[in-house]
Amino acid sequence: MKILITGAAGFIGFNLCKSLMNLKSYELIGIDNINDYYDSELKYDRLIELGIAPKKASSFNTLSSSSLNNKFKFVRVSLEDKTSLVKIFKDFQFDIVCNLGAQAGVRYSITNPDTYVNSNIIGFLNILECCKDFKVKHLIYASSSSIYGLNKEIPFSTSSTTDKPISLYAASKKSNELMAHTYSYLFKLKTTGLRFFTVYGPWGRPDMAMFLFVDAIIKGKPIKVFNNGDMERDFTYIDDIVEGIKLVIDKKTKNSLYKIYNIGRGKSIKLNHFIEVIEKRLGKKANKQLLELQPGDVLKTWADTSSFRKDYGFEAKTGVESGVTSFIEWYKKYYKQE
User: Fold this and answer.
1) Where is the NAD-dependent epimerase/dehydratase domain (predicted)?
2) pLDDT tens digits, one per residue of 93-106
């Protein structure tokens, strides 16, 4: 089975590649544009972890084979580059596409809207077109809990209203779901959208709360706590997210051509409690800088994962205490803080 994973140098894409690359039943191609939204060195180090070397950016512009597994290959390309995407699809004839590549970040979308239109909408359209033209059997793509926006029905259900997003990032993800529905309806393309809830863990993004808090506390810097910490998030550990995606890849269901699922821990946790767990694991108190709720932020997220559990047997297994410990261990090792 040939699988394309977009965003392969990103947090979730990297972890999925790492989990799949040694399985005999898969041939993997990873793509990523390695943009500068956050430290590109982290992205290159993820690729090196997957056996893609050397580290120089220019070396990633053409197809590179992994030194760890000849069934994993990587090419640096943007989703907006339709000509290159068409060539990749034509050369490899993928069975499944996992579209995890996108411009992330709620707050960044407020000041850099063009980036989100280019990557998340035009880029996703190119993926849909290639999947249609090259008869891909199944497109699995990343959506987001942020699309629930001003919805006040808790926990968030896939049957809940999602027509009031409060950031362009959320709007772009909602657009992806609508676009996928159109292609499923018109061209019988099987699509499955996964609404991720606050993913964290080793190799995580530096702009996410987990990373920002640990980094600042270790360095003795203040942490920014929005809405005085009176927010709740359904923090979901990366290994649970990866296992959920793998279930969708592996398991054949009788579902309709178009499906949407929540994929989260299924438990909402106070931000202040999350910080307390980090403090306990680090053995060091945080210097909190209490701030107002930021534009684009919602007060609470909580995933109703019942439909995903029913169809795929999904069950998130990693609690916050265990997940925070794993992240801190990785952070200290990667940044030589031990």
Assistant:
1) 3-264
2) 999 999 999 999 88
